[in-house]
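In this section we walk through a basic example: taking a raw amino acid sequence and producing a predicted 3D structure, encoded as discrete structure tokens. The instruction is simple. Fold the sequence below.
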Amino acid sequence: MEHRIDRIKKQLHAQSYKLTPQREATVRVLLEREEDHLSAEDVYLLVKEKAPEIGLATVYRTLELLSELKIVDKINFGDGVSRYDLRKEGAKHSHHHLVCSECGAVEEIEEDLLEEVEKIVQNEWGFQVKDHRLTFHGVCKQCQAVTVSASS
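The resulting token sequence is shown next.
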């Protein structure tokens, strides 16, 4: 984890920002709960456990800054809640997600599935893609299994 903190610190410094204690507490929560796709409120409650003096507004500002600097991705799965996801080291793009409409589970796809699509967009429309997001909404394996066993 310390390696990732150092890399994020360098990313901030490169943009003339510092890794303040408040920002570090927020980053640590995101690193510890990387699979969880936390909302700002979730991050705040977890940061508050570590550093009770940090306010919700500080956490919001930190998440927005990290999002602007492409250290985290701000994502929405269609439920009206913004969630924050640390960008993988060296990733050119956001990773993709599978969202179960039955249980709400979120699974990540690390592989970039859209390289060919980006080339088509660039060649056909002359549009230079900087980033993309892909979210599939459907029913996960576990919920499908429950549906199958319930109908048997």
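Looking at the output, two observations stand out. The chain has six helices and six strands. The domain at 92-152 is CATH 3.30.1490.190 (Dna Ligase; domain 1). In the next section we compare this with other chains.
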